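Quick one - first record:
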Amino acid sequence: MTDSKKKNYENRDNLEDSGGQAASQTVPGESELEALQSECESLKAQSAEYLDSLQRERASFANYRKRVDQDNHLVYDNALADLIKTFLPVVDDLERALKNKPSDPEAELWISGIALILQKLMKTLDAKGVSALDVQPGDDFDPAFQEAVTHEEDPEYSDSQVIEVVQTGYKLKDRVIRPALVRVAK
């Protein structure tokens, strides 16, 4: 054999040896494969645990925000109710003024002005969710919405019926901010 042919065979043998080593290095053995699969499963479990934890924290934060929003609405409604309570005596005074209006024809402009002021005030209160409690004589007494000023004998009304509304009650949305003061039959 010539030297050049010998070198070709040696080079080919060297390539096969290095290729064989490279092939054995890239293909993992069974124990390595099992270790990688085990590590993969472990990482998947850890990932699922992190995802579950994240979802729980998001839900917890969403619940926290809802509670804070509810608390803020409650604080707002309480502050609004307190503010409105300060204006209710003014409404009572204006209503009394209109009930006891003078009979003088010259006072008609004054009376219409008072009625207009009362109407504007009631529209403003209505825009904030305030409404008068609808209590009429003859209605059954309801302690959730009414406060009894007196209990009287009255032949026209049966036991526990409202005889007269002494002072109008008001509610803010669904909450009573001032019960109606009533006279009740016994």
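second record:
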Amino acid sequence: MNILLVNPPNSGRSIPEEEYGVTSIKQIFKGEPFSLEVIAGALSGHDVMILDMKCEPEEALWRAVADFRPRVIGFTAVTCEANTVLRYARTIREACDSLVVVGGNHASCDPSYFNRSEVDYIVVGIGKKSFSELIQGLDEGDRVRAIPGIAKTSAGSPLSYRPRDYGWEDLIDDCPPRYDLVQGYREQYVLEKLGMKVGFVITAYGCTHACSFCAIPGTTGGKYLLHSSDSVVRDIALLESIPFIRMVDANTFGNPAASRDLCRKIKSLDIRKRFIADVRADTVVQHHDLLREWKDAGLHAVVVGFEDIQEQRIEGYRKRYAARIIPRSIELLHELNLLIVGDFIVAPDYTMEDFAGLERFIAGNGIQVPVLSVLTPIPGTPLHETMKERIVVHDLDYYTFTNAVVPTALPEKVFYETFSELVKRFQGGAR
């Protein structure tokens, strides 16, 4: 069976650009379509093609549909790409008889959004095994019967499907990602803020925590599923020419024992790579010795979701640690000489004092690469449930993490101009 997997183009729109001419903060998503590589890894026996439309013009999609003649076209999509995917699906429906399947972040958070006539199936949650089961059913003559995690669309009626009870078997640990399917795009997969040519390796799905703004825990039903250390080092070896490895895991050190085992295996095999990992501030404090081991194994940079510096907001985000943890974690990371990529959320209720305080904190603590986003209640998250009555922007094209979809405390133009200037100042100082 011919299967075309599509990473949609940059689709987000920008309120500050459209309304106020502020162009410096428009979000551009351009990264390896790793979820599609993982999905493709479980589709042995089929002819699979990955089309990365963040690297290709729109005509490439229609050319691929005409020339490759796929039986199934699978799209992944984050929230701001959902409408673009639906537009493509409508055109495909009119042009050919390919089946359209949609998965990814937004399909997992809000599957009913894709319950439309132009879509045939929706993959809810991690889809490596469930999508392969769907393909197997179709290959055996459309014998698709209530596959957990797969929703058959029923436009005009409520969406009905069996949730998947995720377990280790859903990882299909023995099937590596199909890195070869994006080889033609590889030179374009660079972390621009860090200037690094990078490849992705999956270490776990889900998360050990449940921050209110985050969609990750819901993709696995709240479970934290670890890949074996053997599969991780196998995948690292497949990226032989890539110097930097981004370990894909919401909290790479969420299971300290397993993380230590992986670290020691990397050292014992004399793997010479530089690693980028996600870590929580409280994990840095509680397991500083583990990060020291990882530093010796090649850990180069850490991505830390600090989110805010005020106790009340941190509590509201359900971070489950006190604000005083943050400065201590930064101090310990500096002791290890690790590059800190610090994620901060700018809430719509920010005042000028809040912006000034955040700038002082970031500069005063030497966070080398601060990344600022605007608080965005993604449908399907706890945050959306608590904020939905305040939302005034419902067009998903604007859910890019640089648009305020609820009213701002400052005049809107002032909010965006202040946010933009802060972003530019930090970009000028990043190294």
